[in-house]
Amino acid sequence: MTFPAPLTGVVPPLCTPLTPEREVDVPSLLRLVDHLVGAGVHGLFVLGSTSEAAFLTDAQRRRVVEAVAGHVGGQLPVLAGVIDMTTPRVLDHVRAVTAAGAEAVVVTAPFYARTHPSEIVHHYRRTAALSPVPVIAYDIPVAVHTKLPPELVLGLAGDGVLAGVKDSSGDLAAFRELVTGARAHPGFAVLTGSELIADAALALGADGAVPGLANVDPHGYVRLYRQCRAGDWEGARAEQDRLCALFGLTGAGDPARMGGSSSALGAFKAALRLRGVIDCPVTAEPQVPLSGEETEKVAKFLASAGLL
Amino acid sequence: MTFPAPLTGVVPPLCTPLTPEREVDVPSLLRLVDHLVGAGVHGLFVLGSTSEAAFLTDAQRRRVVEAVAGHVGGQLPVLAGVIDMTTPRVLDHVRAVTAAGAEAVVVTAPFYARTHPSEIVHHYRRTAALSPVPVIAYDIPVAVHTKLPPELVLGLAGDGVLAGVKDSSGDLAAFRELVTGARAHPGFAVLTGSELIADAALALGADGAVPGLANVDPHGYVRLYRQCRAGDWEGARAEQDRLCALFGLTGAGDPARMGGSSSALGAFKAALRLRGVIDCPVTAEPQVPLSGEETEKVAKFLASAGLL
Amino acid sequence: MTFPAPLTGVVPPLCTPLTPEREVDVPSLLRLVDHLVGAGVHGLFVLGSTSEAAFLTDAQRRRVVEAVAGHVGGQLPVLAGVIDMTTPRVLDHVRAVTAAGAEAVVVTAPFYARTHPSEIVHHYRRTAALSPVPVIAYDIPVAVHTKLPPELVLGLAGDGVLAGVKDSSGDLAAFRELVTGARAHPGFAVLTGSELIADAALALGADGAVPGLANVDPHGYVRLYRQCRAGDWEGARAEQDRLCALFGLTGAGDPARMGGSSSALGAFKAALRLRGVIDCPVTAEPQVPLSGEETEKVAKFLASAGLL
Amino acid sequence: MTFPAPLTGVVPPLCTPLTPEREVDVPSLLRLVDHLVGAGVHGLFVLGSTSEAAFLTDAQRRRVVEAVAGHVGGQLPVLAGVIDMTTPRVLDHVRAVTAAGAEAVVVTAPFYARTHPSEIVHHYRRTAALSPVPVIAYDIPVAVHTKLPPELVLGLAGDGVLAGVKDSSGDLAAFRELVTGARAHPGFAVLTGSELIADAALALGADGAVPGLANVDPHGYVRLYRQCRAGDWEGARAEQDRLCALFGLTGAGDPARMGGSSSALGAFKAALRLRGVIDCPVTAEPQVPLSGEETEKVAKFLASAGLL
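^ inputs. structure came back:
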């Protein structure tokens, strides 16, 4: 298939189900894909932050892309994260994920090293020059400790280096600047990574959403997207309110015992298990697993949202 | 050889010379090793931040360890960084670098993911459990955005999980807490990563130093170490003052054009080229190279320090 | 007048015009008040960040409140910031501004000192207990380096400690949590401090907006507010787009020469002078004044927005 | 007396004893002064961070300076902090504290507002131009969220704007740059604000120390200073080790209940009460008081250090 320009709709960043031994659980992964595709999502994003890409070995990453790309076979676009510190390492991942079937790559700013905006620009130019598939920028300051400036992203959009941006910065004012600037670049996709203000992002012109919570409730986000496209802002707000309440499950883990990643990703997986989609809720090391009591909290959020 | 307990002395984090095509320049690397060993350093640390480990592909990392470990053949300890985001990925590097001959691994806190101290502890325990060689903690908040709390490090020292710590945090008060606490753990090495306050760190009881600038002037740091060990604090302060002045070369790159990594690592490599140790000063992408004028600045610092 | 519960509408944070000698220019200040009231704003907020409260002496602060409160005489609510580091100093300001006629006080989290959430709670409780007028929380992490957690604010709303919150955090997801939680507290006002996403904030249920740019274009924000209240989301988005473009004037100052405060507040004042509202565009020390060329840029933004 | 150039020795930042009603307890304050002067300190610094200056009203600040300056009557230099956000407010404090007898003023970088280095320079120039007494820069990034660059401080030293710097940044490498650069400016004082690395700072050439813990154990810091001046580095290290252990009392407060300021300043005051110097250990609002159990911990630290 030709990669859509711009990419639009709901593109969930897939959780990566693991076995109790912490290997990729391919049957569970494919059930998750079916769960999402069946709900009407418009694309699949593997190896993102929600996918625990930072925790997966190169072999595991490859297995994920092969399994998902092989399963959906061109029915809908498959994007893959190539999360690593700098250009040479990212390029190795680009080669691996495109060989495994990814139709676009999602690239963060460099991290670990202290970079200058000119180096971020060079990073994207160089990656795009050598990538056989479109490059989408991934703006996630909580992870890489750099915010991609809107004018930098728009400059690269104008030069045809980037095919889109996934904005997980939480900064809606900067996001608006992207949306406004992107009007000059019709094939460029502006996607929000937010679970909580997807309606607002779509209202001001976003092309789509990449919400981690869509693993748990893909029907909700597809409904929300359709309402926004139809101009049903009242309905969209009500749906978003329901999803915001559901998002409370990401706080199920005790912050005295674990970090935000353990709690949020653990809760997504617990919810997928409770909904019968995956077999095992384990997360990768060194993350801390949810306790039975914390899993009970997740179940209550599901019940309140009408998902159990 | 048996890995020393504790590790002591000057252990430079080796620059990784590259060819103009940005492949590992092994002959230059081995000349750098000879330059350091000839100056009397006490160990070699490859694949650290100064080594551009964040920029090297896995194949390049392996080549570096093989070349250096093969060359020094047990004459002095070879440590290797295994810099990556989380436990499973770090363990892959541990396997690779120990197969290639590394005698200890140097491990940062997890990054990219948001972690809790309990997860950092688990990360080190798990890594040490599966590593065939000693594990040294690498405290580098400027890169990983987490400071390792001294009590966490000392707890792991007490449990035999860690064989030492390289402290690049710049926080001498916390470093002192490590030194004081480590008196209870005789085989545990407390090493400073600072170029600028190595004398102060040694005065208060550090076991050694891991200064990037020792690539450029290993004789200076070896002299400084010997002066400190001999209690010649006046001499040590004068030597440190000279080295601090020399360190000014790391600011040769224009901050309006490049990040701190490009400037500092570019200057180290420019100095090594000017001193005739390596062939090519190029740094890995997306770093910005020094201009001719900026390289001139580096030359002036070398001249002032009596190194040209 | 009775202070409205909840406070609603457009409540501009007034610039504080100064004379060339940097004394409060009361005639210009009153012309600014008339300019705003004439445009239909719903309240006036003096001594906020936009007012350069951090730069005004106690005597100047008093003069501002007396002048404004005396001039509008109960026609519309006058709120005053009481910006200072801790409870005892804030309480001194509360006494001063209420004696001068303020009808509500706007209180940030403590700053300079390192505080705990329980201390922030105590700060608000104690301030409210001793304030003769309603207390509104001012969430401005860029200035005080603490984000007020929504659940903390809502807890204080539930206890009747706070009458509202002005959110200048830029975090729309947290803002939504405030709006949703505030449904249980009907008299509590949730106000956005954003110039750029006021439409989105109002769409999801905000009671009003406190945009600094409303000094320059109060008619625009009043129009935007009315469109949102009428459910004219298309019209609101177009108006907001125009205001976002106008907001570009805050970047008129060269970042190599001055900080963000000098540039943004200098540009607001330059615009007010160009529009004939105030006499002199000077800002308080140590801020850097805009150059002639930079003022020209401001003029171009005004012209593009149809304001010259 | 003429203010010393440079200022040298131990200059404790005085705690401000309060009554149970949180008014300044002048008799306790004067007993604290006598306690310090009797131990041989070389100057007194009132209204610093340790003094809870951020919590004291203007009337309280004035009372403190009048009491202390009146009591020591020119026997030793009295410095006063003029901690506030920007130049005009700082100048008001300069007028007040010098009228009350302060012989030098201690000035932080601006805070709350977002400033540029050129604005920091202007802030110091303007303050010094209007101050009747010498100006000392106060580098305390943990409070003001800006680090004073060494070259900025040294430039102002060279121009005669600053008479010294108190460095509470914890960055010994930058401190060394100050010490080295200050050799060109003989009357300029470089003082460390660290309790924990005072020996290291003095070893590399600091003129003196301003340690909050000297309230509790002034004899210890005076001894340490004399040992360093005499070149007795072994003795100094042992004394510093004892003081580092004693500093553990600042962690007496439970971090789940209170911020760092409540714990550290509460512990200093608890220790002063236990040692019989002041009457009441209360701290200003909104700080949380230490519990009985936490005060017990403080007592144990005192006992271990031989101070009870």
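Chain A has a mean pLDDT of 97. The radius of gyration of chain A is 18 Å.
thumbs up if we can close this ticket
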